[in-house]
Design brief:
- The protein has a single domain, classed as DHBP synthase (Alpha-Beta Complex), CATH 3.90.870.
- 24% of the residues lie in helices and 23% in strands.
- The chain has 5 helices and 11 strands; from the N terminus they run βββαββαβαβαββαββ.
- β2 and β3 form a beta hairpin.
- α1 crosses α5.
- The longest helix has 12 residues.
- The protein is globular.
- The C terminus is likely disordered.
């Protein structure tokens, strides 16, 4: 069973021990559960092919269905994708509840979404996940559910997946303001 870690912030900063715990798990090729600005997600290091495969298996997700990546800051997008919009557009939309789709760059792990020339990119408006991306690099990010199940706004809603996760980071209940129901 995975370890559930309740996130706490110190003066608006993410707790460093939480980040280090998450980094350790991700760099060892495992899957974690964590809050985003919209729903709870499952994340792996984009740099680790075995972790990407594990994420697909865990979700029982069709391997032809791509997974988005998550980065910390706008200046990191160009390393993984060929942006086709001006920086002012990126700054207007990100961070936030938006996934932008661009042509993937050669720097992106070829085993992430093989056969797809495009990749979805997110910068969630959530300190923990952005700080984690600054520490670990890009994350493969998808909803914390089995494919075709409803998305989760509370950490307990995906408790049936916990035995398969190395750690679950509990950010408390997430707001329902955007009406997300099932982006799997």
């Amino acid at each position: 069973m995975s370890k559930v870690i309740r996130l706490s912030a110190l003066n608006g900063r993410t707790n460093d021990s939480h980040l280090l715990a998450a980094k350790h798990v991700l760099t060892s090729g495992q899957v974690i559960g964590l809050p985003t600005d919209t729903i709870y997600g499952l994340a792996v290091s984009v740099l680790n092919t075995a972790a990407i495969k594990r994420l697909y298996q865990l979700k029982t997700r069709d391997e032809s269905k791509p997974i988005a990546i998550c980065v910390a800051d706008i200046d990191q997008i160009g390393k993984w994708c060929d942006t086709t919009v001006g920086s002012h557009v990126l700054h207007d939309l990100l961070p936030g509840a938006v996934t932008l789709v661009f042509n993937r760059s050669d720097g992106l792990n070829a085993n992430l979404n093989p056969g797809h020339e495009l990749v979805g990119v997110r910068i969630p408006d959530h300190n923990f996940i952005r700080d984690l991306c600054r520490l670990c690099g890009p994350l493969g990010l998808t909803s914390a559910n089995l494919s075709s199940e409803a998305s989760c706004l509370n950490v307990d809603e995906f408790q049936h997946l916990w035995p398969e996760l190395a750690a679950v980071f509990d950010g408390g209940p997430l707001a329902v303001s955007l009406g997300y129901a099932n982006p799997s």
